[in-house]
Predict the structure of Beta-glucuronidase.
Amino acid sequence: MKISFLAALSSIFLVKVDCGILDPRHAKRREQISLDGLWKFSLIDYDGAKKSVQASDYIDIMAVPSSYNDISASENVRDHVGVVQYQRSFVIPSTWGSKRIWLRFGSVCYSAGVYINGELALSHEIGHLPFVGEITSFVKAGDVNQIEVLVNNTLTNDTIPQGDVEILTKQNYNFDFFNYAGIDRPVLLYTTEDTYINDITVQTAIKDTSGIISYDVVDIFDTDGNLLDRYELQFGVRELSWDSTSFKINGKPVYLRGFGRHEDSDIRGKGLDLPLILRDYSLIKWIGANSYRTSHYPYAEEIMDLADSLGIMIIDETPAVDTGADLLRNHKQSITELISRDKNRPSVVMWSAANEPSTGDEASEDYYREVIAHLKTLDTTRPVTIANNVGPSADHSGQFLDILSFNQYNSWYNNEGDFDVIFTKVLTEAEEWHYKYNKPVMITEYGADTLEGYHSLPSFIWSEEYQNELMSRNFEVFDRLRAKGWFVGEMIWNFADFKTRQDFKRVGGNKKGIFTRQRQPKQSAHLMRRRYWSLAAELDNATIPADADNYIIGSSSRTKKEL
Ligand code: GCB
């Protein structure tokens, strides 16, 4: 079969899909079949032909969900630019003959064209977001059906994030994480009746000591009183508010202590991995953090579900990373899809409209006026921020935001080895943001690449000691800022080491994690644990875990009775 490379490349798929997108796993009257597992897999050449499988090249089978890049031993797969084809068959039970049948993907990176029994049934672009469509008329109930998914990882000036294709086989991009691609999240077939629940919106507030819940959907019954659809939504009762100096939950000021993160791990790339997700949450709890940012794209719904139930606060970010001001349509679309997916989540306490976009350009003023106005038409219950690296004097975005966030890499991308600059530079930038716009301020990135096991006394760049010293110098200035009354959070870059494109600045990827890519602590994780738990004790009355400090002499955080 020949596949039109150009059609796939430009993502001109004219099939409408529904992004309203209640996760069907929480529906109680729908039947479901998972299409996760092993699919047939082929690389498609730019001329539309399947690349032949050599003995030494790749195995033409792929795991779903997973990114395809790091599974095979072949560079052709890892660095493939353009279209790949996934195929499998599935059986629709004959009992589904009287139902509406739907197909849902948790995320395909970057764009997808889905063919059922040879016909184009769904298409979607923008990775990291779910899409669903009805396929009743495409399938045969009680029979074997074929599904084929064409996945295109090409990034251009119009995609979000942006990239450019230098020659047909070479993809360039500026953002600092590997452009993993494939069917990264689960694939599910499910049924509904003719009438079904398409969307639910729940809003909550607190009045005195009572929680108030408003919702705009109910169970759906037919005229004879039969239950047609039921959806069980996990929600939390809380009210967010903010003003020029604070960000509050249920009237209490919040100080965010957390991380920037990535969906990233050995072999599966950005593919959903439940054991990894649980490990990450154990570490987040162990270290005493209360929050993180989904840098630089929306994370899997399974990750968000756990944040909801474990009480972790999320700054939920769109895939606009390092973008210019010429993406309006896709940027707004990603916000629409993100908010329709995550609007009911108690864990989501803030939206991040972009990471390090070019907000110093004059054109960005009109651009962000429109982007943030669009976001506010969809949700006014949460504050919105941008993780900025353009300083406040050049910035054009702060006027539209509720909370101002900045990324600053002192003693790393500047003044290497000189920690004395940290205090003044962080203090000055935070004050400039606050006094320019009269809004709360937080830091969303600071950090140092660190090679685990490399020690140096006195500290030297890339050593574990260097990372600790850099962090500790930042902690000092964060505390000075906290005392000012308008500094609302600190997030280190990064939770764990992660893969990037090949680059002389990166040794096996970005190593700014306080955990390794295998999720073991560097020395800095222990330091961070002492800080985050001390903040939790001071601000939230938490009890510092007994093992946060080793006993040395005299008093100890271990209880007297243990000693
Ligand atoms: C940044 C980016 C992040 C990078 C980080 C770094 O400012 O937001 O994506 O990974 O710096 O380590 O350079």
The chain has nine helices and 29 strands. The first helix runs from residue 5 to 9. The CA atoms of residues 350 and 382 lie 5 Å apart. The mean pLDDT is 92.
